[in-house]
Amino acid sequence: MGHIPQRSLENLKKYAYKGVDKSLISRYVLNPFWTWFVTLWPLSVAPNTITLTGLSIVFINFFTLLYYDALYLTEREGEEGPPHWVYYTWAAGLFAYQSLDAIDGKQARRTGMAGPLGEMFDHGCDALNTTLEVILASRALGLGRSWWTVASQIATLANFYLTTWEEYHTGQLFLGHISGPVEGILMIVAIFSISGYYGPQFWDQKILTFTHLENLTLMSRLPNIPLNESFMVFGAFGLGFNIFYSYLNVLKATRAQKTSSIRPLLLLAPFAGSALLQVAWLSHPRFNNSYILDSAAFVPFLCAWGLQFAHMVGRMILAHVTKGPFPMWDWVWIWSIAGAIDANLPLFGMAPIIQTSTRNTTIFVWFTLFISFAAYARFVTLVINDITNYLGIACFTVRKKDDKGVWHNAQPDKLS
């Protein structure tokens, strides 16, 4: 067919979605809303159209940030950031994204379009949303261009990678009592709303002072860090919790399948290696004041990182639905490897070859972003073409088979 080998395409017909959601909020609060919300959509609307609509709203939020916030477009400091009302639009947009992301599967079952393409498309949009929300949430928390934002990016991407890694080995998507797609998103919606009311400076308050616990003897020995940094610490504990329970689920699956319980741990190496690569590039020694973390290149750097991550997990999800081998290497890292090596040449007594100034560094970061975008767009296009051609379906059109087995675009009054 093209990108996907023929034997892997044949496995698409064996695919069946399996998922577990233990969230109480999802079960008793959100799911009744989602069940009603999906009925508002005509049966002629394809599930992937709903998914893409949600992602488009997130992109509008992101472009709003870039439009209003000069801090992310220039090297100037001390900018006030977007007007407070903008944060409310981010909250509404993210909640809309969550709702649309939740009902696309319900729409797929209503229209008979549930299948591997839907999971690929849904997870691909989620992967892109992950980095965009890191940038938006970091701005709402007042973290700006800092290592805390980098830490947030690593933790958030790690959670997504763990979920995909776990699904590959267990055959099902597992969402615990507290998960990123449910409680995590609602938490960020709350952050946006609070920042809309008080402003991002709200998060600069010290946590013990804010909670009136600083005078208690038991609490006096704890560091009185700002609320935004406390949120990052909380996220680190959440990541550790997810790592532990994800591995327990994988361990249970490997024992049932009588396969190695050690090898799955080795498959965490691609994420660890890619994250260390990006950190190595960011932490390079200063040369002619060229330093990504302090420059306007920081946001395009994060976006390039996010696109490379989306490419990596996209291949993981493809391996899951086609029962293919786990991808250990991704060629899109090459440009980041080149950037990291070039920027760190001063450690070996040599000047950078490419990143000799802030301007040249920014150009190279934007070039990496362009290559990462082109690579991911190519991957998505090829995979969609292969799956739709092989299964005889359409990505954004509801199609049905007639009595002779011929596919036709479905009409709203012909669907049930």
From TrEMBL:
Primary location group: membrane
Keyword check for Transferase: yes
EC number: 2.7.8.2
Cellular compartments annotated: Endomembrane system
Group of enzyme by EC: transferase
Cofactor field: Mg(2+)
Alphabetical list of Gene3D superfamilies matching this protein: 1.20.120.1760
Membrane-spanning ranges: 24-43, 49-68, 173-198, 231-250, 262-284, 290-310, 331-351, 363-384
Catalytic activity: CDP-N,N-dimethylethanolamine + a 1,2-diacyl-sn-glycerol = a 1,2-diacyl-sn-glycero-3-phospho-N,N-dimethylethanolamine + CMP + H(+)
Membrane topology: Multi-pass membrane protein
Signal peptide per UniProt: none
Family assignment from sequence similarity: Belongs to the CDP-alcohol phosphatidyltransferase class-I family.
Name of the molecule in the record: diacylglycerol cholinephosphotransferase
Organism: Hypholoma sublateritium (strain FD-334 SS-4)
